[in-house]
Amino acid sequence: MSDKLHTHRSHTCGQLRPEHAGQTVRLGGWVHRVRDFGGIVFIDLRDHYGITQIVVHPSKGFSADVHHWKLESVIGVTGKCVQRAADTVNPKIATGEVELDADDIVFHSKVQDLPFSVAAETEMPEHMRLKYRYLDLRTSKMHHNIVVRSKVIASLRRRMTDLGFNEFQTPILTASSPEGARDFLVPSRMHPGQFYALPQAPQQFKQLLMVSGFDRYFQIAPCFRDEDARADRSPGEFYQLDLEMSFATQEDVFAVVENVVGGTFEEFTSWKKPAGQFPHIAYKDALRLFGNDKPDLRNPLRIADVTHAFKGSEFKAFAGVIDKGGVVRALKAPGAASQSRGFHDKMGEFAISLGAKGLGYLVFDTDGIKSPFAKFLTEPILALIKQATGADTGDVVYFVAEMEKTANDYAGKVRTKLGEELGLINPNDYQFVWIVDFPMYELNDETNAVDFSHNPFSMPQGGLEALNTKDPLTINAYQYDLVCNGIELSSGAIRNHSPEVMYRAFEIAGYSRDTVDTKFAGMINAFKHGAPPHGGIAPGVDRMVMLILGEKNIREIIAFPLNQQAQDLLMNAPSPVSTKQLRELRIKVDLPPGHAK
Question: How far from 97 is each of 55, 81, 94, 254, 567, CA to CA, in Å?
């Protein structure tokens, strides 16, 4: 054995090639598989980089012990690299042209009973995967996902730096904000009865960096929100590419994001960014055409308004809704006339599952129209439907009649379902779109008071004059969302940098001047000392990686995620703390009935 070999390894398990044949090498890794072929034992040895086949001949003193080795034990193997015969080459692995003839094996770590097989990569219950996450992360899929995540973040950093952005870190312990989701609170030992909050986003700090004169900031920022789990957001924490720019317009922000995000998707997928800018769709148009503000543009279906076609008609199911202030939305499904009656019934059942009363449909067949309410469809009504939807022979038009907000919602979900059922969505495509012109304010459904609809620190279109002279519900803001394939990647805005505009904007939403001075002291005081026009955005890193990898659940691209109940099953968090710790914080725990201490 050569004394020049590294103590643990001279090569990785993904490194050996035919040019290494004849060399004495040392590998370290996990026992992935063991196969016995009449005395000769083959071991697949795995590490971070790949798999190498190890050959153990019966003449070796340790060969008898091989049968007792448990999978996932960690061993070191020293031996000669040998080129395989042509008929034994394994093209499925990078090292498949060679194998290691073992001369010596050292055990680094023996395994007890495994809760599940790493090599088999069978579907396991999520609680098992999360409890033994370190085993789950050894599987080829999960290992690949986490490595891709790391590379995506490195690419984002490189692209931002190349564009002249500087990475700064903002505080994790900060003040609670009255806006947004529920905060995670951290009690202060030095200031009893007072609390820090973990940041929901570095919003105020990144704006303060612009006031400080730093011009272009970015950060791969951890954000914390005490909210329920969703498929595209982990409960507790998530990461975003947070950025801010001074002396920037909305278009300047768009250009940076399209360069960075578009370039990253090109790097890690086969997608190629189309020429020109990402398309822009106004918020109100998104609701009208797609039923929501997160449209999947891979789906070619568009929602049409056919309220005028049924207003005053004999079809009371629709006309009655219109008389009460409702609307009728329509969706043309091209070529769907060939679908069976059962298909249309299934679509109706889907609409009912959403809460709709039903889903009307009209088939433009070669031998005439077919519809459960065909007798009410006069020639003028049919002409208006055709004009609004572009329907022709061979198409089917589906109808939703509800109050406007509900009709948009139902029609949007039916649009998505139809796109999936009819195979209209290309799973390998990426369609980015900017949703712009969000309303500055909205009515609170519970109190009927005027609230901020998006980001309270956004600049209203029209500035102070608009705030003073226009109906607040008609004012749009310089706010925008980046959406890809129906998933919101980020929200951003051109910020309000004027103290007077900020005071007035918050006053409309019910905040007094004193409240602004107290809750946003750092921000409002900074603006009084010279603030540049500035704007930014924060694309979600987790969601980008999900889209790049084609994963449906965010826990598939996070190394150590919480479960849907916001629990860390591996580290047993959250968990009780000692009475001594609570006493130091001047905290008493008041558990609800039925909760164990």
Answer: 14, 10, 8, 48, 45
* Buried/exposed code over 413-431 (b: 16+ C-beta within 10 A; e: otherwise): bbbbbbbeebebbeeeebb
What backbone torsions phi and psi does residue 146 show, to the nearest 5 degrees?
-70, -35
Cβ 246 vs Cβ 215: under 8 Å: yes
Separation between Cα atoms, residue 546 and residue 238, nearest integer Å: 13
Q: Which two tokens stand for residue 369?
A: 């129209």
Instruction: Report DSSP state, residue 422.
Output: T
**Pairwise CA distance, residues 480 & 248, whole Å:** 14
The closest of 522, 472, 573, 536 to 237, measured between CA atoms, is 573
**Mind listing the pLDDT tens digit for each residue in 237-261?**
999 999 999 999 999 999 999 999 9
How far is residue 134's CA from residue 149's CA, in Å, rounded to a whole number? 17
Non-local (6+) Cβ contacts of 278 within 8 A are 254, 258, 262, 432, 433, 434, 482
List the one residue out of 144, 162, 191 whose CA is nearest residue 49: 144
> 393, 335 in Cβ contact below 8 A?
no
Distance CA(537)–CA(259), nearest Å, equals: 14
So what's the pLDDT on residue 1? 42
Q: What is the pTM of this model?
A: 0.91
| Of 456, 457, 450, nearest in space to 471 by CA | 450
Residue identified by tokens 């921000």 is 523
pLDDT at 595 over 80: no
Long-range contacts from 267-274, C-beta under 8 angstroms, 24+ separation = 267/155, 268/148, 268/151, 268/152, 268/155, 268/548, 269/430, 269/548, 270/428, 271/428, 271/429, 271/430
